[in-house]
């Protein structure tokens, strides 16, 4: 059996660890993450944005068995939404704690970071850790999902001065009661931050470049089945696949219930909703900032929360850049064209998360995408076809019932 090093303990790393242990393809898994725990950044973000429930249905989670969470919940902690069940944040957290404990992974995450990655001519990885240790596992799974913030040009100088806070660090609990903030962005994080701050007595100006897009999920469910996935997977040109991903995701979106909540807050005078408007200028104004908009208006705020997302670019990623230098491959819009088992061709390094999107499609960065990436890795280690990996979740040799 191969020994595997998983870099990152978010949902993608957890899905990989669960798939490998459930399918018993290795008894030697090492997981590293500076936080020292599972889903630390995920839980912090949910708490900071006061998120009550997941957007993904209950059959999407890190465990290989799609129905594991429904079985665990027993009908509790679920919110009906358009024929699906959405798990509340508390039931999802309890489910994760349960499956982690059942697989003996509770204390598996080491509080250490990967600071360097090299590969020898045969593609064998060598990982340099922040504690000065150098490890040479048989396989490495990069589950960091490292993203580079996309901050509007007008806000970059203020961001450098610490006056603009990115969504990853913004917390509704810090909203100034009786003060004013601007939230920049048109996706779900922007909506959560705006609504949470408004409920805490802050006047919010929500600024979106486009009219807010209302969708139940961030990607159409047709991408979960073969109708969209099969032609995508058969397309030989990675640039065409990259455009398909962008078209499928279409930028930020929010479910209808959040649109209604924003409008309710707007009617109450707590949110100034500005759609089809961009920030074109930003300058200090007393202790706050003066923002200039593309429609000619200005507003003075105490703080700016920037929820404009981030991008993956393997050419800028310090762990992927050495791979690109030694084993060049096609890169489309920052995404690498990986092998079917999500390995960097010619190496024993696998990617999980949105970095695998040119193989897994637009859902690669979602919970369902993390599970699919994990199953492809498990299939590879079992000598099975990774493209048909979804079948090992329910077919012969599937994750045993005692894993729940």
Pick out its properties.
five-stranded parallel β-sheet, 2 domains, 12 helices, FAD/NAD(P)-binding domain
Structural topology:
Blueprint: E1 4-7, H1 11-22, E2 29-32, H2 40-48, H3 68-73, E3 78-81, E4 84-87, H4 89-102, E5 109-110, E6 114-119, E7 125-129, E8 134-135, E9 139-142, E10 148-149, H5 156-160, E11 164-166, E12 180-184, H6 188-199, E13 203-208, H7 226-234, H8 238-249, H9 256-267, E14 271-275, E15 279-285, E16 288-293, E17 298-301, E18 303-306, E19 310-311, H10 321-326, E20 331-332, E21 335-336, E22 349-351, H11 357-360, H12 367-381
Parallel strand pairs: 1-2, 1-9, 2-5, 9-22, 11-18, 12-13, 12-18, 13-14
Antiparallel strand pairs: 3-4, 6-7, 7-8, 10-19, 15-16, 16-17, 20-21
What does this structure look like?
Helix content is 29%, strand content 21%. It is an alpha/beta fold and 404 residues long. It folds into two domains: 4-147 and 312-403, FAD/NAD(P)-binding domain (3-Layer(bba) Sandwich); 151-213 and 251-309, FAD/NAD(P)-binding domain (3-Layer(bba) Sandwich). Strands 5-2-1-9-22 form a five-stranded parallel sheet, covered by helices on one side. A five-stranded parallel sheet has the order 11-18-12-13-14. Strands 6-7-8 form a three-stranded antiparallel sheet. Strand 6 and strand 7 (125-129) form a beta hairpin. Helix 1 packs parallel to helix 12 and helix 6 packs parallel to helix 9 (256-267). The radius of gyration is 22 Å and the shape is globular.
């Amino acid at each position: 059996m191969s020994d595997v090093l998983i870099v990152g303990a978010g949902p993608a790393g957890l899905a990989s660890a669960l798939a490998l242990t459930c399918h018993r393809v290795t008894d030697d898994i090492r997981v590293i993450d500076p936080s020292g725990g599972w889903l630390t950044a995920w839980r912090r973000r949910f708490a900071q944005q006061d998120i009550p429930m997941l957007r993904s249905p209950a059959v999407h989670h890190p465990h290989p068995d799609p129905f594991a969470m429904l079985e665990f919940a027993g009908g509790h902690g679920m919110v009906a939404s358009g024929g699906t069940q959405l798990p509340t944040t508390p039931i999802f957290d309890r489910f994760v704690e349960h499956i982690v404990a059942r697989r003996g992974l509770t204390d598996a995450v080491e509080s250490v970071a990967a600071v360097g990655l090299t590969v020898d001519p045969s593609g064998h990885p060598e990982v340099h850790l922040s504690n000065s240790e150098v490890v040479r596992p048989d396989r490495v799974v990069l589950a960091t999902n490292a993203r580079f913030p996309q901050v509007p040009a007008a806000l970059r100088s203020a961001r450098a001065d610490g006056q603009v806070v990115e969504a990853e660090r913004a917390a509704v609990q810090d909203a100034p009661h009786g003060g004013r903030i601007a939230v920049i962005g048109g996706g779900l994080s922007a909506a959560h931050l705006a609504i949470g701050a408004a409920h805490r007595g802050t006047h919010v100006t929500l600024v979106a470049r486009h009219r807010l897009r209302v969708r139940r999920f961030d990607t159409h469910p047709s991408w979960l089945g073969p109708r969209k996935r099969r032609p995508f997977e058969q397309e030989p040109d990675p640039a065409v696949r990259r455009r398909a991903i962008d078209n499928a995701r279409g930028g930020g979106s929010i479910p209808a219930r959040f649109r209604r909540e924003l409008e309710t807050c707007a009617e109450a005078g707590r949110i100034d909703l500005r759609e089809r408007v961009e920030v074109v200028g930003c300058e200090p104004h007393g202790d706050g900032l003066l923002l200039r908009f593309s429609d000619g208006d200005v507003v003075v705020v105490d703080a700016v929360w920037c929820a404009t997302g981030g991008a993956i670019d393997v050419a800028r990623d310090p762990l992927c850049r050495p791979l690109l230098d030694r084993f060049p491959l096609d890169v489309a819009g920052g995404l690498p064209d990986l092998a079917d088992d999500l390995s960097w061709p010619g190496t024993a390094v696998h990617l999980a998360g949105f970095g695998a999107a040119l193989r897994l499609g637009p859902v690669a960065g979602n919970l369902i995408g993390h599970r699919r990436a994990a199953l492809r890795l498990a299939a590879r280690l079992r000598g099975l076809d990774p493209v048909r990996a979804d079948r090992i979740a329910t077919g012969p040799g599937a994750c045993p019932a005692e894993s729940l």
